Amino acid sequence: MDGRGLSCIAENTLDVIVLDLIMLGMDGIEVLRQIRSVDLHQRVIVVTADSRPKTEWEVRALGVSEFLVKGLWCIRLGTRSSAFSRPPPQ
Fold first, then answer.
1. According to the 3-state scheme, what is the secondary structure of 16-79?
2. Is 25 left (phi over 0), alpha (psi -120 to 50) or beta?
3. In a designed cystine with 43, which of 31, 49, 65, 68 is the match (CB 3.0 to 4.6 A)?
4. What is the pTM of this model?
5. Could you list the residue range(s) of the whole structural domain that residue 43 is in?
6. Which pLDDT score is estimated for 24?
7. Is 50 in contact with 79 (CB distance < 8 Å)?
8. How confident is the model at residue 73 (pLDDT cuts 50, 70, 90)?
9. What residues pair up with 47 in beta bridges, in sequence order?
């Protein structure tokens, strides 16, 4: 993620960000850290092929709303994303 992406997050109200952990350039955990540096309350759903408990623990420690392992995740994403249409807790 570059500065434009973080600016977009900082300057706009987003219901939810869907973030993959494996990306070119910067890994998703670093992107999540940067998102948290801009907005501690932004809802983030992490989608990954990495099902290791260590990875889930690491991203949950950064305050993700959901951790979905790829496979049947699209069904769960549709179910869970509807919960994010409500305002986040303050």
1. CEEEECCCCCCCHHHHHHHHHHHCCCCCEEEEECCCCHHHHHHHHHCCCCEEEECCCHHHHHHH
2. left
3. 65
4. 0.73
5. 3-83
6. 76
7. no
8. low
9. 20, 68
- Domain count for the chain: 1
Q: Could you tell me which of 60, 58, 50, 51 has the C-alpha nearest to residue 23?
A: 50
* Residue 88 covered by a domain: no
SS3 89: coil
Percent of the chain with pLDDT over 90: 23
Write the single-letter amino acid at 3. Answer: G
Residue 8 belongs to domain with CATH number = 3.40.50.2300
DSSP state of 82: G
**Structure confidence by residue, pLDDT tens digits, 74-89:** 666 666 666 666 666 5
Question: Token pair of 70, please?
Answer: 């790829």
pLDDT band of residue 52 (cuts 50, 70, 90) is very high
